[in-house]
Specification:
With 622 residues, the protein is mainly beta. 5% of the residues lie in helices and 45% in strands. It contains 3 helices and 46 strands.
Length: 622
C-alpha cells in the first residue's frame, strides 16, 4: 500500500486505495455493522456475526463503515467501538458492472487469488443487511419452562420464563384469581388471590408473533420455596421446614440437590416428587438420611412420580438428596418436592394420558385379598370398577362374574395410565378353568396422529361371550416378579359394552408448545381426532357450544371412515384482540338417541409428550 498523508483513523489517504485488515462485526438484532482492527476481541452482543476482512477499498466508503484502526504498536489494546455515523447511513453496494467507481476487492494471500478477484466484500455487506433485517422481526415464541412454577394462595412470586421470543408478552392463566405483571425480559410477577382454588392450571404467553405454551402452574396452600443452586453437597444442604413445597431445577448433568429439615421422633411425613405431571422431564429419585447420616429410605424406581410415607425414628436433623435417576439434564429438568405431614394421597399425581379412569362408568369396589386365589376368586357384578393392589411377589388377582352367550363385555385395566411403570396382563378363563383369551394392549386407531398418545401397555377389549356360564378374569403385573407392595395399585373395569366415542382437539399445523394464534381477518385450523369404541362406527359432527366473540368456527363432519379432520377458525377484521377459550362438542346419532359429548383439548408439550389441557386457548392479534 502506498503511504501518504495521515487519515484520522490511521489510514493513508493520498490514494483512493487502501489495504485493510480487520474484523467486520454486525449485530443481527439490529442489523448494525461495526469493524474492529484485527487482534482486538469481538465486542459482546446478543446475536452477532464476525467476519475477517482482508482487502482494499476506497477511503470514503471505509469511513462510512467506521473501521477502527490503530498503529502496529497499539494492536494489543482494546479501543472503544466506533458506531456508524447517524447522518451517514450504510450505502448499498452495487456490482462492479453497475458501479464503476467501486473497486474490486481482492484477496492479498496469493498473486493468483488477486487475478481472480471478486466483489465479495460488497456481497458480504448485502448479506449482513439482509440478515439484520430478518432478525429485526421477532421470532415466533416458544415456552420451554417456567421457574418457579407455583405460588401459595394470597402471595406473589417472581417467575422466569425460559425459551425463545419471550422478551415481551402477556400471560394467561386457565384459573381465576391469578394476575401477572411484566418486569423485564422473560420475568413476571405473579399474584394469587386469597380465594384462588388450589391445584394445577395452565399458563400461556402471547406475543406479537404468536402464542406459546402451555406450562403447568401450581397453586398450593403451603409456602413455596425456590431451590438454590449452591446445594450440590451434603454440607451445603438448603434448609427447609415441614410443611414445605420446593420448586427445583437441575442446572447441569448429574446435578445433586440437598435439603435439610428438623424432625421429631414418631412424626409421620409424606414425601412427594412431581415432574412429569408439571410438564417436566425428570425421573425423580430421592434418598432420606437420618441424624446419624444413615440412609433411611429410597424412593421407588417404578413410579413416574414417587410418593412415600415415613415415620421419623428420632429427634434431629434430616437430609434429603434429590437427583435425576438417569443423571440427565435438559430444558425441561424441573421438579416439585413436597414435604408434608398429610397422609398419602394417591389421587395427587395426574397422568399425562388422554384417558382418565374417573371418567369411566362403573361402581368402585375394593379388591379383597382374602378371595384372590384361582380356586376362590372374588365375585363381582356387572358393571363394576375394582381398585386393586399387587402386594406380594408374583401376585395374581382373580375375579368371577356371570355372563350370557352373545353379550359384548368391555374389560379394561389401568396401571400405566395411573402414572406407574407397569405392564398389566388380563386373561379370561371359563368355568372349566380353560383359558379363553388374553386381552391385548391398547393400540392407537389407524390413521390417528402420531402426536396423540392413544396407545398404552394397559389391556382393553370388547369381548363377545361364547356361551352362558361363569367366567374368571386373572390380572397380574408382568413386573411383579421384582416389584410389589401396597404402592402397586391398578383399576379394573368390567361392564357391558356400549357404543361410545370421544374426541380430542389440538392446534394444527404448528410446532410443539404452540397455541392457536390468529391475526384479524385471517384463518387458522384446529385438528380434531375422533376415537370410536364399543362397536360404534357412525358419522359425527363437531361444532362449537358457545360462539366466541369475533370468531367464526365452521362445523366439521367426519364420516364413518374418517378419524381426523381440521376445523377452520376465522377471526373477524374488527375482532377484539386478546384471549379466547374455545369449547367444542361432538354430536352423533346412536339408535334413536342423539348423543353429545364435550371435546377434550390437548397440546404437544414437547416432542413425544402430549397431555390434556383445561381449555383450548386462541389468541387474536392485530
Amino acid at each position: 500500500m502506498r503511504r501518504g498523508r495521515s487519515h484520522p483513523n490511521g489510514i493513508s489517504t493520498d490514494s483512493p486505495w487502501a489495504r485493510v485488515e480487520g474484523w467486520l462485526e454486525f449485530n443481527l438484532s439490529t442489523g448494525q455493522s461495526r469493524a474492529t482492527h484485527m487482534g482486538n476481541s469481538l465486542l459482546s452482543t446478543q446475536v452477532g456475526v464476525r467476519c475477517r476482512v482482508i482487502g482494499v477499498q476506497t477511503l470514503p466508503y471505509l469511513d462510512s463503515l467506521a473501521f477502527h484502526t490503530t498503529s502496529t504498536e497499539n494492536r494489543t489494546s482494546r479501543p472503544p467501538p466506533i458506531e456508524p455515523p447517524a447522518h451517514r447511513p450504510l450505502p448499498t453496494p452495487l456490482p462492479r458492472s453497475l458501479n464503476p467507481t467501486m473497486p474490486t476487492i481482492a484477496s492479498l494471500s496469493t498473486r493468483r487469488s488477486r487475478r481472480r478477484a471478486t466483489p465479495w466484500l460488497g456481497m458480504l455487506l448485502i448479506m449482513a443487511c439482509r440478515l439484520g433485517g430478518q432478525a429485526a422481526v421477532s421470532a415466533e415464541p416458544e415456552l420451554k419452562s417456567i421457574f418457579p412454577f407455583g405460588c401459595q394462595v394470597g402471595e406473589s412470586v417472581e417467575i422466569t420464563l425460559t425459551g425463545t421470543g419471550l422478551n415481551q408478552g402477556v400471560l394467561y392463566f386457565s384459573r381465576d384469581g391469578i394476575s401477572a405483571e411484566h418486569l423485564e425480559k422473560g420475568q413476571f410477577r405473579v399474584t394469587v388471590s386469597a380465594d384462588a382454588a388450589v391445584g394445577d392450571c395452565d399458563l400461556w404467553i402471547a406475543t406479537a408473533e404468536g402464542l406459546a405454551g402451555p406450562r403447568r402452574f401450581r397453586i398450593s396452600r403451603d409456602p413455596v420455596i425456590a431451590e438454590q443452586e449452591d446445594n450440590d453437597r451434603s454440607d451445603d444442604s438448603q434448609a427447609v421446614q415441614i410443611p414445605s413445597v420446593i420448586d427445583g431445577q437441575l442446572g447441569k448433568t448429574a446435578d445433586l440437590d440437598w435439603f435439610e429439615f428438623d424432625g421429631k421422633e414418631g412424626q409421620r411425613i409424606t414425601i412427594t416428587c412431581r415432574s412429569r405431571s408439571l410438564d417436566g422431564s425428570v425421573q425423580p429419585a430421592f434418598t432420606l438420611f437420618g441424624p446419624r447420616n444413615r440412609e433411611l429410605l429410597h424412593s421407588s424406581s417404578h413410579n413416574y412420580e414417587p410418593q412415600v410415607v415415613y415415620r421419623l425414628p428420632a429427634h434431629g436433623s434430616y437430609r434429603l438428596l434429590m437427583r435425576e435417576r438417569a443423571y440427565r439434564q435438559n430444558d425441561y429438568s424441573i421438579y416439585r418436592l413436597e414435604l408434608t405431614t398429610d397422609p398419602l394421597n394417591r389421587t395427587a399425581v395426574e397422568n399425562t394420558n388422554l384417558i382418565r379412569p374417573d371418567e369411566l362408568f362403573g361402581t368402585i369396589e375394593i379388591e379383597d385379598e382374602r378371595e384372590q386365589s384361582r380356586e376362590s376368586p372374588q365375585v363381582i357384578e356387572l358393571p363394576c370398577r375394582v381398585s386393586g393392589q399387587f402386594i406380594e411377589r408374583n401376585d395374581v388377582d382373580w375375579f368371577r362374574f356371570q355372563a350370557k352367550k352373545g353379550q359384548m363385555i368391555h374389560i379394561e385395566a389401568f396401571g400405566e395410565r395411573l402414572g406407574q411403570l407397569m405392564d398389566l396382563e388380563a386373561t379370561i378363563y371359563d368355568a372349566a378353568d380353560k383359558q379363553v383369551t388374553t386381552i391385548a394392549d391398547i393400540t392407537a386407531p389407524k390413521n390417528a396422529p402420531p402426536s396423540m398418545p392413544l396407545a398404552s401397555l394397559d389391556p382393553s377389549t370388547d369381548w363377545k361371550v361364547p356361551a352362558d356360564g361363569e367366567y374368571s378374569i386373572a390380572v397380574r403385573d408382568l413386573y411383579s416378579g421384582s416389584v410389589f407392595g401396597t404402592h402397586r395399585v391398578y383399576e379394573l373395569i368390567v361392564m357391558l359394552t356400549q357404543p361410545a366415542f370421544f374426541a380430542v382437539a389440538m392446534p394444527d399445523g404448528i410446532k410443539h408448545s404452540r397455541g392457536v394464534f390468529i391475526k384479524r381477518g385471517e384463518t387458522s385450523e384446529i385438528s380434531v381426532t375422533v376415537v370410536r369404541t364399543g362397536g360404534f362406527s357412525g358419522p359425527v359432527t363437531v361444532h362449537e357450544t358457545e360462539a366466541a366473540s369475533g370468531l367464526t368456527i365452521e362445523p366439521c363432519n367426519l364420516d364413518d371412515k374418517e378419524i381426523t379432520k381440521a376445523i377452520k377458525v376465522t377471526a373477524a377484521k374488527d375482532a377484539v384482540t386478546g384471549f379466547r377459550s374455545l369449547r367444542l362438542v361432538v354430536e352423533t346419532q346412536i339408535g334413536s338417541d342423539t348423543q353429545t359429548v364435550p371435546v377434550w383439548n390437548a397440546v404437544q408439550i414437547r416432542p413425544g409428550t402430549t397431555r390434556r389441557i383445561e381449555d383450548l386457548i386462541i389468541y387474536v392479534s392485530e
